[in-house]
TrEMBL record:
Residue ranges constituting the Circularly permuted ATP-grasp type domain according to the UniProt record: 73-450
Taxonomy, superkingdom: Bacteria
The name this protein goes by in its record: Circularly permuted type 2 ATP-grasp protein
Origin organism lineage: Bacteria, Pseudomonadati, Pseudomonadota, Alphaproteobacteria, Sphingomonadales
Pfam families: CP_ATPgrasp_2
PANTHER family the record matches: BLR5612 PROTEIN (PTHR34595), SLL1039 PROTEIN (PTHR34595:SF7)
């Protein structure tokens, strides 16, 4: 393997294999190299036949792409996962408490821990949610916490995804592909399963149903339609849960309830797992031009006759300026120091922070506060002087739109290249389910990998790929 900066999760500095990879490495060393490469091609063919693709916006030549899959798994020991899980659960509980407080007494604002301007001028904060508590008191039903690793015991949170986190279908398909191609490998290495996620998701959503929903609540997945970048996932999850996949045109408010059109007439929906952004959810409350949502659904919601997952208004937690206050948020609501630290963050809305960022643009990563998918960001060390100068003008014009972070030395995992194994940078998105009965964390998650040598951008929209994520059952 060629060297690449960052903590190597498979190999120690002396070239020995770390304990997490011992079983896999032993198996791999016994395989014929040509056979392994043929399996890699087989995996790509499987993904194409299954239709595991995503849409790329703004590119006429390549509207739909295959997400590259690398067959070398990313492996985490059971002990590492237990420590991570404690930190993830603490953070998700704090996020849910924060959402409730923000739409009720706003104690964290009164205490001076969080500036009021962060949500007063935030489009993701919805005044329509003030004073309302969702069924079961759950705001963040499904959460994706993006983690990066910088050392043996050093995991940090890079982002919180509390609105409509995506990628879980790729986690499931990656595992199914690996088990189909290498069944004997899973008999040699004990890996915790992830295939029960759809059942756990359905049970978690059902537990959040409004009162009066009955013993078997009706669940539907609301999609914007086939042209959405994550449509494959919407259809996949609905199918796996045994739920209905619906568009806004399939739903209407009848007798004070949201009901879906069926061959037997309109039937009530108790829980709506929505993959439509807040602004398009209800044209009577938000964007009047929306044809993706359901007119009147917010009135039904506030009357307590439907659960919307995730709750409208949770996008505040996705804000990267809010992210920078997460250590204070965790401590405020749990009374504990964060078990998972944030990446050091400069809020460009603060004059002193802005001056530091402008003076050090060539060394920093700068992100839009509401950005996602790797768009609208600057990676100073890999940018040209012209790109840095252009970004400087953006920062000076609207500093409140940006935060900056140091360029981290992300950990690496091996990928299979034509010349053999080679390290590439990775991150990890574990998926978390929340219900009145507690927090449920799927063992593993989605590992995204920067397939280009030296690249730190793992997003599929920017040329990244995915891996199967293993948590060892030890």
């Amino acid at each position: 393997m060629t060297s690449e900066t960052g903590f190597d999760e498979m190999l120690a500095p002396d070239g020995t294999v770390r304990p997490a990879y011992a079983g896999y490495h032993e198996w791999l060393s016994q395989q014929d190299e040509r056979w392994v490469h043929s399996k890699n091609f087989e995996a790509e063919t499987f993904f194409r036949k299954t239709g595991i693709t995503f849409n790329v916006y703004g590119e006429d030549a390549a509207e739909e792409r295959l997400i590259p899959f690398d067959m070398v798994p990313r492996i985490i020991t059971g002990g590492e996962w237990r420590r991570l899980s404690r930190g993830i659960e603490q953070r998700v509980r704090a996020l849910n408490a924060f959402m409730h407080d923000l739409y009720h007494r706003q104690e964290i604002i009164r205490s001076g821990r969080l500036p009021e301007r962060l949500f007063r001028n935030n489009d993701a904060w919805l005044p329509q949610m003030v004073g309302f508590t969702p069924p079961g008191g759950v705001y963040t039903h499904i959460v994706g916490i993006d983690l990066v690793r910088t050392g043996p015991d050093e995991f940090m949170v890079l982002e919180d995804n509390a609105r409509t986190p995506s990628g879980v279908s790729y986690m499931l398909e990656n595992r199914e592909t690996m088990m189909a191609m290498f069944p004997e490998l899973f008999s040699q290495v004990a890996v915790r399963p992830v295939s029960d996620y759809p059942a756990r998701l359905a049970a978690s959503l059902a537990a959040c149903a409004p009162q009066g929903a009955g013993r078997k609540p009706s669940i539907a997945v609301l999609t914007p339609g086939i042209y959405n970048s994550a449509y494959f996932e919407h259809a996949f999850l609905a199918d796996q849960m045994g739920a209905e996949l619906v568009e806004g045109s399939d739903l209407r408010v009848v007798d004070g309830k949201v009901q879906m059109r069926t061959t037997a007439g309109f039937q009530p929906v108790d829980v709506l797992y929505r993959r439509v952004d807040d602004d398009f959810l209800d044209p009577l409350t938000f964007n009047p031009d929306s044809v993706l949502g359901v007119p009147g659904i917010m009135d039904v919601y506030r009357a307590g006759n439907i659960t919307i997952a995730n709750a409208p208004g949770t996008g505040v937690a996705d804000d990267k300026a809010i992210y920078s206050f997460m250590p204070e948020i965790v401590e405020f609501y749990t009374g504990e120091k964060p078990l998972l630290p944030n990446v050091e963050t400069w809020r460009c809305a603060d004059p002193d922070a802005l001056k530091y960022v402008l003076d050090n643009l060539a060394e920093l990563v700068v992100k839009e506060v509401h950005g996602s998918g790797g768009y609208g960001m600057l990676i100073g060390p890999t940018s040209s002087k012209k790109e840095i100068a252009a970004f400087r003008h953006k920062l000076e014009a609207k500093p409140e739109n940006y935060i900056a972070q140091p360029t981290l030395s992300l950990s690496t995992c091996p990928i299979l290249t034509r010349k053999g194994l080679a390290p590439r940078h990775v991150d990890l998105r574990p998926f978390v389910l929340c219900s009145p009965s507690g927090v449920d964390i799927t063992p593993g998650g989605l590992t995204r990998v920067a397939l280009k040598k030296g690249s730190l951008v793992v997003n599929s929209s920017q040329g990244g790929g995915t891996k199967d994520s293993w948590v060892l059952d030890d």
